[in-house]
Amino acid sequence: MTPDAPAALPMGYNVQIVAVQVGADEYRLRILADKQQYYDPDGAAERAGISSATWPIFGMIWPVGIALAYEMTQFPIDGKRIIEVGCGTALSSLVLSRRGADITASDNHPLAEEFLRHNAGLNAVPPVPYRQAPWGEENPDLGRFDLIIGGDVLYEPDHAALLAGFISRHAQPAAEVLVADPGRGYRGQFSKRLAAEGFARTEMPCRAGGAEIESKGRILRFTRTAV
């Protein structure tokens, strides 16, 4: 990643633009310049259950996120309705939008939508629909998806149960789930919960994101065939 100089914005936090290589293409992303920032003047993050310690997570580029984005450069998308969960800066959603996929980005962070809109503009890709979609809440108008993707989304003790519940409500009877994971301890719990929903798991090493992620990280692929 190649960063531009940080810029102080009037909204109260510092950002920078970085260049990220994904396969043959380069993407420019607005990310947070300071990983220790916290900005919640109207209490939106607090109401969403986001602490000061976890507030900046959405605005960073994680190596395993680059690994997921790389998989999206070649994953079959024809006829699939796709959602990225915990999208953050939404690199994978941008890759899929550039390919013409039916992609919806989602997160629980109050700033994720604005960052997504800005990053889509930076890369001249079609606007990506966004949904605020907390995993533990009902979203009856969100519908169901053929492919659900996420990068490093199992980092808290309750994430396995919450995300599995979300998938149960929003995956089509025949569906796939792709999670890029750097080696978190909760992926076993997540796999068991998806197995109970009829998903079979396979995995492979990450093929992008840097040497450490490529050696330790895994792309977890869950597949369910409609009966």
TrEMBL record:
Listed InterPro entries:
Methyltransf_16, SAM-dependent_MTases_sf
Q: Do you know which Gene3D superfamilies this protein is assigned to?
A: Vaccinia Virus protein VP39
The domain of life for this entry's organism is Bacteria
A Pfam family this protein belongs to?
A: Methyltransf_16
PANTHER family from the entry? HEPATOCELLULAR CARCINOMA-ASSOCIATED ANTIGEN
Q: What is this protein called?
A: Putative nicotinamide N-methyase
Q: What is the lineage of its organism?
A: Bacteria, Pseudomonadati, Pseudomonadota, Gammaproteobacteria, Steroidobacterales
